[in-house]
Amino acid sequence: MAAELSAHHRRLAQQKREAIITAATELFLDRGYDGTSLARVAEAAGVSKSTLFKRFPTKAALFEAIVTESWQRDAGDAAARPQTGDLRSGLATIGHRYADLVGRPGMTALFRIVIAELPRFPELGRMQFQLGKLPYFTSVQHYLEAEHEAGNADVPDAVSAANQFLGMIANYVLWPRMLLTDWNPAASDIHDAVEQAVQTMLARHTPGRRPDPKPER
């Protein structure tokens, strides 16, 4: 019985947390970071002020949670590195996970909030980069380094390679949404975009397939 009550309380706590995160994201997007009070977030989330302040004593703490949730919610093991040994399979796994991640409405909302508030609140940009983008990027970089060390890929600069790979996907899945409210590509089109990015990476980084440097004139 005690275990059931404990599990019930945990579910309630998680539901309240999710309600707070959702309400805050919508309010930050609609009213701006500066124009949103924690009291208004509590009201919109349907929780008491004491409940909200206990979890998030400041707006900065709340935004930090939004960043973390945006990069992790519904992403499962999106940041987990595939096992080395099959470069094509590993890149495809990473690419499709990333497309799912950045294609969610919550991620678009997060980027819009950060971009809109960046001139007045540069710390929001730092949170987005350090807590969200950087850990994910680093996991991809480490995967490419592992494949390179194992001899399965020719990736002498894993930082550049990770930037190029994720950039190709984000340029189709995420960034058009920032400017085009009706941008909603079909799942098959997103799949094809990821596969094209994988093929580009394979052409560049499969051992023995790197183009020879141009001779100096």
TrEMBL record:
Pfam families (alphabetical): TetR_C_7 (PF14246), TetR_N (PF00440)
Alphabetically ordered keywords of this record: DNA-binding
Organism lineage: Bacteria, Bacillati, Actinomycetota, Actinomycetes, Streptosporangiales
PROSITE patterns listed in its UniProt record: HTH_TETR_2 (PS50977)
Domain HTH tetR-type: residue ranges: 14-74
Signal peptide (UniProt feature, chain positions): none
DNA-binding region: 37-56
Protein name per the record: TetR/AcrR family transcriptional regulator
